[in-house]
Amino acid sequence: MFRGDFTPLLFLCVLLAVAMSQTIDERIAMANVQEDESTATGPENATVTEDIGVRRELDMIFTKEQWEFIIRQNRTNSTQGTRNRRKALRPMNRWPGGVLPYERPSGRVFSGREIVQIEEAMKEWQTYTCLQFRQATSRDSNRLHFISGDGCYSYIGVVKRRQEISLGRGCRHKGIIAHEIGHAAGYVHEQSRPDRDRHVTIVYENIQRGNEDQFRKYRWADTFGVAYDYRSIMHYGARDFSRNGDYKPSGPRTPVSRRVIGNRESLSFRDIKLANLLYECRETAGCDPNIKCPGEGFVDKSCTCMCPGNPVRPCNSGDTGTGSRFRARAGAATGTDSVPGKGQSEPGACTDRDPLCGQYARLGHCTTNGAFMAGQLQQDMQKLQSSTREYRF
Asked: CA 74, CA 119: separation in Å to the nearest integer?
């Protein structure tokens, strides 16, 4: 009797475990019924339709105007100097005022649990950034519309009309939804940023035939000075478009990186930092322009310096990296919209308080966020820093 009662639950748990073991791109690929982008061998040969646009890298939809801009940039880039850029489009693609009106997901299309997942993904972006999601009114010509379409996909930035975020049957998990919302906010994939070759190696002989162009770099994407992020929710896994699915010829060299890349269910610190810079959150909030944050810290919408945590935390006097002093607006809230990091401690403490300590160290945080790591690790910093940090795709 009990076996019969619990079999469906056990089956569901197995399915969830399988889904969670897959990287974001693997889950998106499984959800996509048709991959229009696989037929294109280059941007000039891509198929453009007036009603949809150009679909690339499984889930990104570019409008005709955006794609023509990309083609022009690819043609002229070799004769122009490069800037420090990242994975978000130019300001013309930002949502005005950082406000993203949306149509409430239909209960005829999505279950109650799935609607909660959508709302939680929007809430996470809104909590850590100055992006605001509100239900659209008749006056909002630009709005997000969640549909059950051909797999998972989203337009890039605001496209000046009602724009779809497709959440097919396999896409209705918070991590994937947050990923697609990132596209709608203006993000492209992390591994497509112009400086990616300094951080990952693309093994072209292991790419599925006809998909080589899926690894094109977008040289027009602004970095805003934010460092490359293996933990980004916008980063695909190491087997993206792999011919044989094997990690060895195309994947990261270290076991740590295999667990990190493409395995996000929530925003990373640098995802959050980028949105705050892209949408000028500190300027919108009227923060003191003289506030300087230590290390990788940034000024958030409450005029508080935020540093790497879980995913962010208020900076403290022990955070170093720039040598500059920092301060926050008097009376500013420091914890309302943030989740404190694990194992926060005074510099100099030598305790292993976070199970991800080893991963943090191998990703270079001993250098970029030394004071925070000093409170997290019990291992020798220099020894960890000397370990390999090269990742192969």
From this structure: 37
Binned at pLDDT 50, 70 and 90, residue 51 comes out as: low
- Distance, CA of 89 to CA of 69 (rounded, Å): 11
pLDDT category of residue 87 using cuts at 50, 70 and 90: low
The answer to whether residue 180 is catalytic is yes
- The reply, when asked if residue 179 is annotated as ligand binding, is yes
Task: State the Rg of the chain over Cα.
Answer: 21
Cβ-based burial of 201 (10 A; exposed 0-12, middle 13-18, buried ≥19): middle
pTM of the model: 0.72
- Known binding residue 173? Answer is no
- CA 342 – CA 324 distance, rounded (Å): 25
Cβ 278 vs Cβ 87: under 8 Å? no
The CA-based angle 152-157-160, given to 5 degrees, is 105
Domains of the chain from N-terminus onward: 20-279 (3.40.390.10)
Tokens linked to 288: 């003191």
| Active-site pick, 26, 57, 124, 180 | 180
Q: Quote the CA–CA distance of 118 and 167 in Å, as a whole number.
A: 10
Instruction: Say whether pLDDT at 21 is over 90.
Output: no
The answer to whether residues 251 and 243 touch, using CB atoms and an 8 Å cutoff, is no
CA atoms within 13 A of residue 263's CA, in its CB half-sphere: 13
**DSSP secondary structure of 316-331:** -TT--SS-------TT
Say whether 130 sits in a helix, a strand or coil.
coil
The runs of H, that is alpha helices, within 192-335 are 247-250, 255-260, 269-278, 281-284
Contact status, residue 149 vs residue 168, Cβ threshold 8 Å: yes
